[in-house]
TrEMBL record:
Keyword Chaperone: no
A Pfam family matched in the record: BCA_ABC_TP_C
Entry's family note: Belongs to the ABC transporter superfamily.
Protein name: High-affinity branched-chain amino acid ABC transporter ATP-binding protein LivG
Naturally occurring in which organism (per UniProt): Yanghanlia caeni
CDD domains: ABC_Mj1267_LivG_branched
Molecular-function GO term, any one: ATP binding
NCBIfam families: PRK11300.1
Length: 255
């Protein structure tokens, strides 16, 4: 039986005179892929930034497993099992692919400086585990051959996969993907759809997605919330959303 993992109620975000998000509510179940779509400027990224701890919402309640997380900084939100990728891939571009995955684990595990300096057995063990984990994810993403390359020199599609690996290596309960198909070619988009399906199946992770590529959204999502002018206009399964006249109007009305 699935249960509600993320719950967002009455979320509002104001930037000066602009109400970018206006009374948004939705929930994401622990076994679900939930997408937020809508025309440019609808408020999707702002919702993401509030949920991920990058913005402090003006009003609203956001809970993970019943625990309030609104207003928490992003690193604390990550400890609650909620991590994200960005519209423009954000990696440590001068570090190698492998180092990016090791850093992600250190940021998350928070090992003590003393144990690191003294290289205690426990510290060495955790280093070995981190390395094994990184190798596992490099294999899973099909990028092991690039392990020692600077992340900034990878092909764009591989950078996106590395960014997802960097999230997954912290064993999140909710993975937030911000336009993961942007900049990918058609084959890479198909691979991405398979990857999202596989992550959900094999790692029990729920996915919250913002995406403009309708074929990916319709193919991968269990439910979709459509936003326009900061407000949700409908939430439903792909077939309901695809044929909803309000959704068609919102998109046709776009410049
Ligand atoms: N930091 C900010 N300061 C002021 N206004 C902002 C800020 N971030 C977003 N906005 C405004 O809030 C509104 C919603 O923007 P948002 O980026 O959330 O939309 P979006 O649906 O993600 O759009 P896109 O699909 O283009 O990414 C827009 O009018 C935008 O200009």
């Amino acid at each position: 039986m699935s249960k509600v993992l993320l719950q967002v109620s009455d979320l509002t975000m104001r930037f000066g005179g602009l109400l970018a998000v206006d009374g948004v509510q939705f929930d994401v179940h622990d076994d679900e892929v939930f997408a937020i779509i809508g025309p440019n400027g609808a408020g999707k990224t702002t919702v993401f930034n509030c949920v991920g701890g990058f913005y402090k919402p003006t009003t609203g309640v956001i809970t993970m497993d019943g625990k309030p997380i609104h207003g928490m900084p992003s690193h604390k939100v990550a400890r609650e099992g909620l991590v994200r990728t960005f519209q423009n891939v954000r990696l440590f571009k001068n570090l190698t692919v492998l180092e990016n995955l090791l850093v992600a684990q250190h940021q998350h595990i928070n090992t003590s400086l003393a144990s690191g300096l003294l290289k205690t057995p426990a510290f060495r063990r955790s280093e070995e585990e981190a390395l094994a984990n990184a190798a596992k994810w490099l294999d899973f993403m099909g990028i092991r051959e690039y392990a020692n390359r600077e992340a900034g020199n990878l092909a764009y599609g591989h950078q996106r996969r590395l960014e997802i690996a960097r999230c997954m290596i912290t064993r999140p309960r909710l993975l937030m993907l911000d336009e993961p198909a942007a900049g990918l070619n058609p084959q890479e988009k198909r691979d991405l759809q398979q990857l999202i399906d596989q992550l959900r199946r094999e790692f029990d992770v729920a996915v919250l997605l913002i995406e403009h590529d309708m074929s990916l959204v319709m193919g991968v999502s269990d439910r979709i919330m459509v936003m326009e002018h900061g407000r949700p206009i409908t939430t439903g399964v792909p077939d309901e959303v695809r044929t909803d006249p309000r959704v068609i109007k919102a998109y046709l009305g776009e410049d």
